[in-house]
Amino acid sequence: MTYSGDMRVGGPADVRELSELTISKLAVGPMDNNTYLLRCTTSGEAVLIDAANEADRILELVGPTGLSRVITTHRHQDHWQALAEVVGTTGARTVAHPIDAEELPVSVDDPVEHGARVPVGECELEVIHLRGHTPGSIALRYDDPSGHTHLFTGDSLFPGGVGKTGGEVDFRSLLGDVEERIFAQMGDDTWVYPGHGRDTTLGAERPQLPEWRARGW
User: Nearest Cα to 155, choosing from 4, 32, 17?
Assistant: First the structure.
């Protein structure tokens, strides 16, 4: 079946097969969080983005081949409710931005800052620091060598706007980073995988940037 990214909690994962990476999207928990399992098709190594909730379903998705790392996009609790159990069961290393690391329920093995690279077997993700939703919010960029860019944005970018912020200063910071570090650097065919809800593309969102700035949220 064709990947759509339109998920419901309790439903099966939606799977996208790229040339060198498989992306599995699963909706979990009472806040309809998205968790993403990325697996290198050559080595089989897997990385999870946001162990948000329902550890049993996440571990079922991971399966017997194991998990090398869990990346947490930011400090908010709905994005790490299953982190301790998933890490405890799999032995995966933990990855997050150091500013948000102290708020997580487990220690961070590999703190990452803007521009860092996180391996997924023979593939790699680039860390993009997006300041505003939380001080240490990050997105993860994957450039498919046979296709376009894939971007996992946590709660920093959704269809229709940037993530929630605590006020005008944080909003301007987040929108500025999103404009400079995402929209100015990536093409319209970039596929966006957010922390909740449906996916989008930068091409679908780019025309709305002036509206987001004018409305202030």
Answer: 32
For tokens 């005008």, the residue is: 168
DSSP 77: G
Q: Are 40 and 21 in contact (CB under 8 A)?
A: yes
Q: Under DSSP, is residue 9 helix (H, G, I), strand (E, B) or coil?
A: coil
DSSP 92-160: PEEEE-HHHHTTSSS--SEE--TT-EEEETTEEEEEEE--SSSTT-EEEEEE-TTS-EEEEEETSEETT
Q: Are 22 and 15 in contact (CB under 8 A)?
A: yes
Distance in angstroms (rounded) separating the CA atoms of residues 15 and 60: 14
Pairing of the two strands 149-154 and 138-143:
antiparallel
Cα–Cα distance, 21 to 29 (Å, whole number): 26
CA distances from 186 to 1, 9, 93, 182, 191 (A): 27, 30, 29, 6, 10
Could you report the average pLDDT of every consecutive run of 10 residues in the chain (217 residues)? 90 96 98 98 98 98 96 98 98 98 97 98 98 98 97 98 96 98 98 98 98 95
- State how far the Cα of 158 lies from the Cα of 196, in Å rounded to an integer: 8
Q: Which pLDDT score is estimated for 1?
A: 60
Its pTM surpasses 0.90: yes
Neighbours of 204 (CB within 10 A): 13
